[in-house]
Design goal:
alpha/beta, 14 strands, Arc Repressor Mutant, subunit A, two-stranded parallel sheet, single chain, Rossmann fold, eight-stranded mixed beta sheet
Length: 709
Amino acid sequence: ERLEKQITNPLCLVADFSKPEAPLQIHVAMLALNRFQESFGRGPNIGCPQDAEEMLKIAVSISETLETRPQVNGDVVKWLSRTAQGFLAPLAAAVGGVASQEVLKAVTGKFSPLQQWLYIDMLDIVTPLEKMGSEEFLPRGDRYDALRACVGDSLCQKLHDLNVFLVGCGAIGCEMLKNFALLGVGAGQDKGLVTITDPDLIEKSNLNRQFLFRPHHIQKPKSYTAAEATLNINPCLKIDSYINKVCPATENTYSDEFYTKQDVIVTALDNVEARRYIDSRCVANLRPLLDSGTMGTKGHTEVIVPHLTESYNSHRDPPEEEIPFCTLKSFPAAIEHTIQWARDKFESSFSHKPSLFNKFWQTYPSAEEVLQRIKSGESLEGCFHVIKTLSRRPQNWTQCVELARVKFEKYFSHKALQLLHSFPLDTRLKDGSLFWQSPKRPPFPVKFEISDPLHYGFIVSAAKLFAAVYCVPFTEKDLSEETILKIISAVKVPEFRPSNKVVQTDETARKPDHIPVSSEDERNAIFQLEKSIQSNEALQNDLQMKPISFEKDDDSNGHMDFITAASNLRARMYNIEPADRFKTKRIAGKIIPAIATATAAVSGLVALELIKVVGGYPAEAYKNCFLNLAIPIMVFTETAGVRRTEIRNGISFTIWDRWTVYGKEDFTLLDFINAVREKYGIEPTMVVQGVKMLYVPVMPGHIKRLKLT
């Protein structure tokens, strides 16, 4: 509807269902503020009671002219009057994100427009400041005057003196740093520090939403670059940058001592496992955690405060739906299935197998020793696959191309022939229906054509990757069409021999962990290893491979070339519509759709909760939020209160509780158990630390442990 009509009869989106009347009350207060400015040619003065009274009178008169005659909320009007000259940057970011999405809707016609007003209030922040003197809010002539008008000088100082650890400098991380800069977080003269970490380098695809980065920053570390850009916004900030992952492997860098120095931890990650790990460290060290995430136009925020709320680990997301193993292996029906198959082939051939190969030869340093052990009947885990890899190891570029050509035949011809051998086209099920019916598509072997760009592309990309993992050098000339054609024309491709292996058709079956080894395989392994040793192809250099980690954004590494070619060849084999490189990259790289509007909104909301955490606000002040800017919807909810477990009368605990028992140097396990019994009046039945069982009376030998310190 037109603005004229909506002013007198507003339709508002309710964001907080604990106060459904709030949007109309704010609508009246905002109209009163506009009228005040028109009447007096200025905004209400900071903390001026006379201006607040005047605005209240205007609000009452406006309310009577509206069709719904909403009730005037004196507190809303008073606080709007007191803070009208102020500016709360994170609130602007949140509203700005929503407004920007509405602009995009108007320009593109995509998604639903807002029906029709959205009001967000942060009365939770200002109401507890009621008893502060008006001088707290008055300007001091620095860059924080507008912030001070909203939250007072004491809270400004607390923000400046804050130690905050930000994990992740991607889209949300960049926006968070902007908010920190505008709030002066970590800018105190003697105290305060922002610590940031992110192991990633800046990619071109980041530039559409990670707004601290520019084209000349590509391939530079995100954390160092983000820190530098943040200091351009506010040079007074103190920032420490790291490029480490936060995981058990970096516990020396991010120790318990490090965590206890932090006042707040903020996560800006899309990795669930990393978030769970950080949450466990926050709980262990009694530190508040602010978490958030986005997916396209959707976003969420979560506040975790010691002793007041549940933690991130208190709830579990439903597991992602996996593509059944038999669908991936034999019966793909969609391009997503062939892309995942190609991705799995990449992991298996160029990462997993080379890693197992290296691990094996670190355990058994020489081929001669392994041969001796197998001959004596010893079973060495993984040795048959390792010996097979060693015996087929390419020694030069020609052999890399030959190996790629043989793999082409195996993946895209023999596989189809084998399936059609196991299940001919006229195969019927027990109920008489055809085996090959939707969604099962029968495969048809792909005949190799060197002139087909897809076939040629697979050979070149696979050969380059084999050369990389087997440490085989190659030149530009080796990559020339002439050289590749010459090598391929001389390759002896093995003929198809049907096998009687059982093809898995059960959709609930999972990929087997271990494939059993036959006695024939054992005899072959001995023969192959003897042959490798005799021909000097099992020397120290031959016992090493170079595993490759998949990297979707580096076009020069050939990773996406291989996955695109392999996926589309398999799609062709099953008569599935192929996908271009961009779609393949999005699916294979698990690229989560992202847009700057949702990122800005989410990080603004997190920064508002940060102010409450710094102010030590009560549990009811904190709000989690879920939003979807496409619909649009925005829902604020109170945080889940922490669950208390009762042991017996007078003794209970939550996830945040710690009992400390102090022992001397000769303090034994029995002393510890007795101390707990005496101090808390409970009988310990077992003692564990993490996943380690220190003392379980029924376990053999554990009684002896009672004497140990």
